[in-house]
Structure formats: structure tokens, C-alpha cells
């Protein structure tokens, strides 16, 4: 998360445990709290816009993934500033086994005006997610806040979750990571996305 890097570099200090970050959707408030030796950041997802995929687009997505997504809830393009194609897979094992055609996936994302495809499957402890932002040059994002936020908005619109609900999204196992993202729906149906970050690389880039 960009906010973590900014705080680690000492470029900004939170005011009363909060900071505000600007994105394509406007200003995003972020809460900052200590969690033992870690720093926990939580942001409120900007209001989302949804567009259902057409039948032809769903067929193309299935071909790209080599696996069928669920038809209910219908896959959708979800715009929260970052734009993701969200879809549900029948089970976690099937989700983990998906190996998309990366070149075709990148072309598909560009044509739909999205930065990636974010898939999920319901698990015993919440959900498992995988994010493929192939059009950005990244084959798979190990842990993605905006992707999980889009999935949460998608699930909220499909009435899979509702007011006051919360869950944990696990992500990154197929990239050698094991990340966890917390999702919470407040009393006004706002979506909050949070998690703890660590710094794995620190240095200076010179042109």
C-alpha cells in the first residue's frame, strides 16, 4: 500500500490516527493503528460503479481462464477508482488451479477498461482471492487491496454479505505469499479494507 511506504519514509505523519490519500475517485480516508510490532491500515472504499458482463464477455473470460466462472452472481466490471473485473469461482481448489492465458487476459482487460481480473471463492474462514492485473505488466498480484475491495463491493451488491458483516480474504498462495485482507461492511453499507504491511525492500532509485 502506498500509504505504508509514505509513512515508513517519514514523508507524512497521521493526524489523530488518520491520513487522506487521493485517487481517481477522489479523497480516500485511511486509519492508522498500531497492531503489536505492525502498523495496520484501513481505508474506506470509494463508491463503486458496476457493469455486468455480457454473455459474450463471460464466454471469453471462461476461455481465458480455462475454467468457468459462476453465472450467479453475474461477473461484473467494478469501478472504485481502480477498475477490476470481478467473478466468483465454485471452490477454492478450482480457484488455485486456474492458469489464465496471460496475453489474452491483458487484451480482455484493456478492451473492458479494467486493470485486472479478480477472482474469488468462498472458504471455511472467509474467501480466497486471486488478482491478475496482466494489462499492467504484472501477471498476478500477491495481495491486492483494491481488488479485494472490488470483490467486497461485488459481493455486497449480490447480497452475499450485508450491513455489519466482516470477513478475511486470503491471497497470495500461488505466488509464494500468504496474505490476509480484512473486509468490514459498516451500518451505512460502506466497505472498509484493511491489513498490516511490512517493508521487504528499502533503497533509492536513481535515473
What does this structure look like?
This protein has 207 residues and is an alpha+beta fold. It has one domain (44-197): Roll (Diaminopimelate Epimerase, Chain A, domain 1), CATH 3.10.310. The protein is built from five helices and eleven strands. The chain has helices at 2-8, 55-65, 92-96, 102-111, 145-157; strands at residues 18-23, 26-35, 38-44, 49-52, 76-79, 83-88, 116-122, 126-132, 166-171, 179-185, 191-197. The protein has an eleven-stranded mixed β-sheet with strand order 1-2-3-11-10-9-8-7-6-5-4, sandwiched between helices. α2 runs antiparallel to α4 (102-111). It is globular. The two termini are 23 Å apart.
The tally of structural domains comes to 1
What is the CATH homology-level superfamily? Diaminopimelate Epimerase, Chain A, domain 1
Computed structural class? alpha+beta
Q: Name the poorly predicted regions.
A: none
- Beta percentage is 25-35%
Q: What percent of residues adopt helix (DSSP H or I)? A: 10-25%
Distance between the termini: 23 Å
How many E strands? 11
Instruction: Write the element-wise H/E pattern from the N-terminal end onward.
Output: HEEEEHEEHHEEHEEE
Strands side by side in the biggest sheet? 1-2-3-11-10-9-8-7-6-5-4
Corresponding CATH architecture: Roll
CATH class: Alpha Beta
> Rg from C-alpha positions?
17 Å
CATH topology (fold) name: Diaminopimelate Epimerase, Chain A, domain 1
